[in-house]
TrEMBL record:
Organism of derivation: Garciella nitratireducens DSM 15102
Protein name: Pseudouridine synthase
Protein family according to the UniProt entry: Belongs to the pseudouridine synthase RsuA family.
NCBIfam families assigned to the protein according to its UniProt record, in alphabetical order: pseudouridine synthase (TIGR00093)
Gene Ontology CC terms: cytosol
Lineage: Bacteria, Bacillati, Bacillota, Clostridia, Eubacteriales
């Protein structure tokens, strides 16, 4: 890559401005001042400095929404060679990874990115990002069990945060419910439903904050819209 192109790509300035910086002797490659325009560098091997400060290749941030199917592991790699969500997202040059997890038997909205700060904000309970699920439960919970679910349950060594729980429909002795949580511990919803004696039959996440799954087909993905990205950036800015 040409040196001035690299500088511009890293946000040092416009291509023309970067050429000016090179001519002024403000850029070093591997400790040597370079004034030659068009000087070729290898961003992965060469050390580049501008005004005595090292600079690195700017990594384009990628934000993707996947409608995860049942039967996929939410990891980059799996030691048991099971199918992972990475096999569903193709033709992406950047190294992305899932934000949080959906377990093997859970489907629905999964965000993927290479933005570590955003990942932290969306997965840490202190940011209170809502995650909405639709689930079929075995049996129909009583009002007392629903209230217990809403107020927080002791699961293993922790007590869950207050949770929204609404019965949407009843069919053949089972209940379709909407559940909204503000944290995302391992298999949390399944464990909470087990706790009140109504195991999950099926579970689907349909919303994270203001990001909606919508009508995206199962197994398909898309880039987030500018509105969605700006919403996520507003969460990062609160950090």
């Amino acid at each position: 890559m040409r040196l001035q192109k690299f500088l511009a790509y890293c946000g040092i300035g416009s291509r023309r401005k970067c050429e000016q910086y090179i001519k002024e002797g403000k850029v070093k490659v591997n400790g040597q001042i370079i004034k030659q325009l068009g000087f070729k560098i290898d961003p992965e091997k060469d050390n580049i400095e501008f005004n005595h400060s090292p600079i690195q290749m700017y990594e384009k941030k990628v934000y993707i929404l996947l409608n995860k199917p049942v039967g996929y592991i939410t990891t980059v790699k799996d030691q048991f060679h099971r199918k992972t969500v990475m096999t569903l997202v193709n033709n992406i040059n950047e190294r992305i990874y899932p934000i949080g997890r959906l377990d093997y038997n859970t489907e629905g909205l999964l965000l993927m990115t290479n933005d570590g700060t955003l990942t932290y904000c969306l997965t840490h309970p202190k940011y209170e990002i809502e995650k909405e699920y639709i689930a079929w439960l075995k049996g129909i919970p009583s009002k007392e069990k629903i209230n217990a679910f809403k107020n927080g349950l002791k699961i293993e060594d922790y007590i869950t945060f207050p949770t929204d729980f609404t019965i949407l429909k009843k069919n053949r002795g089972n209940a379709l419910v909407k559940i909204i949580i503000h944290e995302g511990r391992n298999r949390q919803i399944r464990k909470m439903c087990d706790k009140i004696g109504h195991p999950v039959i099926s579970l689907k996440r349909i919303r994270i904050g203001k990001i909606l799954l919508g009508d995206l087909p199962t197994g398909k993905w898309r880039y987030l819209t500018n509105i969605e990205k700006n919403y996520l950036l507003s969460i990062k800015n609160k950090k």
